[in-house]
């Protein structure tokens, strides 16, 4: 049996152009190489799984590449690039600060800085999870970071920028990586699926992207999990079943029940959802998001703010046409309030049921008020 390589490693970008969703970072780094204005130290910060370490490695490789492409990408063919790709480079040093966070570890690194690069222009030090360094280690690192040799470049990466002491921040060029939006994640998953000869429905990939919450590495890990579950044919139904995600159709049904004369159907549907193993807070948070999407769908100019496929957007638009904006705003307010107070509630199921009944009562009240107004106007 061939050794399986997870998609997050197999499809890790090797050039700036293949990095997903961080164009503002990659273009700046390429311009720095183009103009020769390369700072002595960089700080890459942002959420997990968005490409911080990947960009650090590509940048480190590009700095010593002997034959950069016309677009200032590493060629991956010269001796320096091949040595790095084979983990045999003497000019790029990677340190995991999570497990090497003592003063002695930093002193060892400082000693290495004194050694000039071998057959290359720069010696690059990539320090991952730099926020894990102890206060004493940070202080031991300060002088070297402020006045390193001309050939030494430092790339620090962290998920917790607020834990970096100000004296370190002031010595670095800070690059803030952003969460990757769902559309970019979906495009990349489609590319991976095609490369792996996997059939995947777009709605299924959209669920994976939403579950990943802006982290491409998480999305690829979930993708591998679903491929193993489905046997190479990823469907929407299989995906929500495996990830324990509540089908959006349940929310459409719930809204139809809430904006009707009978609230009992809404309570029975909620009971069915709980019986299927879904958390009440997960449901009420989803309801709040659904009401928000309905509000967005009422105006054609704001539909683009919704993360959904075209077919689902049409469903939202059709349902939103039949509901007054004031009712949607009140429903959104009630569900958001219920979600906010959920953890402090002693009877969590009752708090959600009460929220649903209030939404329905508000609809009935508004409907009766409108009917009474019509009757009065007809008599006049």
Structural features, described:
The protein has helices at residues 7-10, 23-35, 52-64, 79-85, 103-113, 135-146, 166-169, 182-195, 202-212, 216-230, 236-243, 248-258, 264-275, 280-297, 310-321, 325-341, 348-379, and strands spanning 41-45, 92-96, 123-128, 152-158, 173-176, 199-200, 233-234. The chain is of the alpha/beta class. The strands form two sheets. A five-stranded parallel beta sheet has the order 2-3-4-1-5, covered by helices on one side. The protein has a two-stranded parallel sheet with strand order 6-7. Strand 2, helix 5 and strand 3 form a beta-alpha-beta unit. Helix 12 runs antiparallel to helix 13. The longest helix is centred in the C-terminal third of the chain and has 32 residues, at 348-379. The protein is elongated. The model has no long low-confidence stretch (mean pLDDT 86).
């Amino acid at each position: 049996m061939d050794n399986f390589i997870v998609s997050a490693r197999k499809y890790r970008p090797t050039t700036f152009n293949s990095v997903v969703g961080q164009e503002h970072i990659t273009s700046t780094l390429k311009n720095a190489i183009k103009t020769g204005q390369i700072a002595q130290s960089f700080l890459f910060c942002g959420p997990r799984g968005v490409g911080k370490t990947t960009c650090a490695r590509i940048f480190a490789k590009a700095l010593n590449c002997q034959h950069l492409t016309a677009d200032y990408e590493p060629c991956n063919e010269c001796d320096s690039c091949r040595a790095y790709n084979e983990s045999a480079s003497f000019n790029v040093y990677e340190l995991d600060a999570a497990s090497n966070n003592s003063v002695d570890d930093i002193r060892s690194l400082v000693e290495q800085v004194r050694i000039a690069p071998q057959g290359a222009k720069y010696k690059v030090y990539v320090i991952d999870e730099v926020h894990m360094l102890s206060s004493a280690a940070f202080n031991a690192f300060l002088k070297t970071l402020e006045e390193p040799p001309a050939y030494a470049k430092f790339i620090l990466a962290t998920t917790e920028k607020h834990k970096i002491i100000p004296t370190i921040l002031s010595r670095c060029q800070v690059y803030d990586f952003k969460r990757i939006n769902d559309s970019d994640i979906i495009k990349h998953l489609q590319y991976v699926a095609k490369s792996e000869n996997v059939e995947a429905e777009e709605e299924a990939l959209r669920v994976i992207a939403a579950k990943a919450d802006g982290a491409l590495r998480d999305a690829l890990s979930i993708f591998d999990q679903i491929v193993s579950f489905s046997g190479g044919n990823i469907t929407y139904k299989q995906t929500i079943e495996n990830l324990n995600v509540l089908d959006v159709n349940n929310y459409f049904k719930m809204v139809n029940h809430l904006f009707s004369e009978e609230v009992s159907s809404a309570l029975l549907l909620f009971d069915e959802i709980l019986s299927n193993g879904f958390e009440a807070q997960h449901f009420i948070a989803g309801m709040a998001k659904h009401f928000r999407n309905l509000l967005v769908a009422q105006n054609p100019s704001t539909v683009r703010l919704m993360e959904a496929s075209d077919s689902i957007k049409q469903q939202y638009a059709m349902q939103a046409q039949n509901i007054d904006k004031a009712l949607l705003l009140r429903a959104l307010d009630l569900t958001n309030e219920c979600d906010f107070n959920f953890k402090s509630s002693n009877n969590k199921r009752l708090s959600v049921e009460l929220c649903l009944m209030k939404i329905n009562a508000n609809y009935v009240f508004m409907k009766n008020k409108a009917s009474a107004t019509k009757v009065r106007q007809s008599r006049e």
